[in-house]
Amino acid sequence: MKVLQIHSSDFSGGGGGTVAMERLHSSLRQSGVDSHILCGRKTTESPHATATPKSRRLRIVENGVRKVSKELGLHDIHHLNTFFVKGLKVYQEADILHIHGTHGHFNYLALPSLTKDKPAVFTLHDMWALTGHCVYSYDCERWKIGCGNCPYPKVHRRIKRDNTRIEMKLKKWVYNHANLTVVVLNKWMADKVSQSNLAHLPTCQIPNGIDVDTYQPLDPQQCRSLLGIPPHKKVLMFMALSLNDQRKGADLLLESLQRLPASLKSNLVLLLLGDGGKALAEAAELETFDLGYVRNDRLKAIAYSAADLFVFPTRADNLPLVLQESMACGTPMVSFDVGGVPELVRHDQTGYLAQPESAEDFNNGIIQLLEDDQLRNTLSKQCRSIAVEEYSLALQIKRHIHLYGSVVSNVDYQSEYPVQLQLSKVQE
Question: Which of 24, 159, 174, 288 could form a disulfide with 281 if both were Cys (CB 3.0 to 4.6 A apart)?
């Protein structure tokens, strides 16, 4: 079987959706599936990745269209090269398309054309496909009624004119004319889809997978020694692609740290991974180890294993890979009860789930877990067990291979494996 993965980039060091796509692609190839990446921006030398075509003349036309669409507040419709994908050999040879998001280097208006002769699986790594503008809607539910009067015009990509209702109508037309099978990562997104313009499409639930052999508990003291962290101090770890991203909640983390008792702060180290850590390190008023952006999986596993707790003060998220990685390494977590986070941070089972936007409750979680070594050890074991049983990469690959075969064969797998049961109920 030949699968064409379609995403904005082939770079495995990008955001969560990009990393998840690249891990799926690599693991499929290792399992004997002929997977190829088609991307708007190719950054690697991989022979299994192809950039969408874009001639000099097409670039000029796209730039002109972009100026107009930007003024109108419409996203990505200037990527005219998406309509030429059907002429590529990798498209023509593919048995099935797997689309990982339709924003950034991809024109969603091309979906009906691309899926006319080839079925497609459409994985939702965020909410953009459901809304008229934003990647996450936060407390806004206007996407359920067609958007318009957007309360967050500056979120994601700032819009000069509120045409979110028009964009929602365009998306609705696309979904009504495209041959798509929707994949959600969790129950939270499944609920959103059931109330959206995608509700009429077949939908199944397959979480992202983690390589539990790479991400596994390592000796904490050896890991601290490798990173130069004092062996007898407590370690809090925070990681994000950009540590300054407001959605990731660094401001809430700082407020929480400021609330910590002086006796605990004096014995605490903050371990940071991600871009923009210098300002956060200076503001934290704690001994800080800033590793910067880390792409290497082994080094990340060492960092997780060196930490007593992984803190993730996110304001909105789907199924964060960093939480899955932390679980696999046996590192308990403190996060907020938002989005799909509760499906990973299970209160008193894998960590502490704080009330959204409450730095005080987040602080309570940090104190409780840092001061109770026995509880933290219990949570650590449960983290690892859940990661292996529910989120292994091997399980994700089996589920996708089953899904691809069902879609290509036009089997009504949804009636047999509905989203509420997940594909984890499929007999392996």
Answer: 288
- Contact by Cβ (8 Å): 252, 269: no
Structure confidence by residue, pLDDT tens digits, 185-203: 999 999 999 999 999 999 9
Dump the DSSP string for 357-422. T-HHHHHHHHHHHHH-HHHHHHHHHHHHHHHHHH-BHHHHHHHHHHHHHHHHTT--HHHHS-TTT-
Position 239 confidence tier, pLDDT thresholds 50, 70, 90:
very high
Q: Which two tokens stand for residue 251?
A: 């401001």
Average pLDDT, the chain: 91
Identify which of 213, 206, 214, 274 has the alpha carbon closest to the alpha carbon of residue 245.
274
pLDDT tens track for 16-25: 888 999 999 9
pLDDT in tens, 371-395: 999 999 999 999 999 999 999 999 9
CB atoms within 10 A of CB 135: 19
Q: Is 326 helix (H, G, I), strand (E, B) or coil?
A: helix
Domain boundaries, the chain: 2-208+393-425, 220-390
CA distance 202 to 250: 38
Q: ∠ CA 184-339-195 to the nearest 5 degrees?
A: 55
Nearest to 343 by CA among 130, 232, 185: 185
Q: Tell me yes or no: is domain 220-390 CATH 3.40.50.2000.
A: yes
Average pLDDT in the 215-226 region?
A: 98
Q: For the chain, what is the total number of helices (H) and then of strands (E)? A: 16, 13
pLDDT at 424 over 60: no
Q: Could you confirm whether domain 2-208+393-425 is CATH 3.30.420.240?
A: no
Distance CA(82)–CA(180), nearest Å, equals: 17
Distance of alpha carbon 164 from alpha carbon 166, whole angstroms:
5
Most distant pair of Cα atoms in the chain: their distance: 65
Same-fold call for 2-208+393-425 versus 220-390 = yes
